[in-house]
Amino acid sequence: HQLTVDIANCEEEEEKEEKKIIFEETQKKILECAQQIGGIEFVNEIQSYKPILINTQDLQEQYDKAYYDVFVKEFEEKKYEKTVGLLEFIKKTLKALKPSESMNLEKNIDIPYIHHKLNFDKFSNTMGVELFDYILDVIKMVQSSANDKQLEKIKAELKIKEIFLPDILIKLMGLITNIIYDLENLQSSMKKK
Length: 193
Description:
Layout: H1 2-10, H2 17-48, H3 56-76, H4 81-97, H5 102-108, H6 111-119, H7 125-142, H8 148-160, H9 165-192
Helix pairs in contact: 1-2, 4-9, 7-8, 7-9
């Protein structure tokens, strides 16, 4: 079963062709051994198990959509736990990535204040533009320049349309995810050297 899954995963990249051949040969040898041990019935039983292949990218997209839908619904019901949680995550992540900016991050991303304003419908669009413009400036300091175009697009949106917090927070999380992905790639390439 696992070898069949491994073979399916190898089909996407050319460099994995060697692995695919090894997996197929291993699978063939296992079936030969199974026939010697338990006969054709044992081989048939082994082959009756079919792998369940899941496109993890599609699964992640479905999960993200479901999370977004719940996030929006809760936000509209004035349940701000996810909003506060994402703001806290963004602040902590940026403080870890840019320690010299910690004091300003604490001052500008004042979560109890933001939460209070949200609870009393006093979080204005102007406050949102100032907050997210600042966060985007900090992200730009630490992210790869390859992601600047995406960041600038988000900054432009802040100036032309009313801010919907769930939308902007999800976009900021996308930028943070890109930073983490870039750092992981950098770390793995450093280990290879």
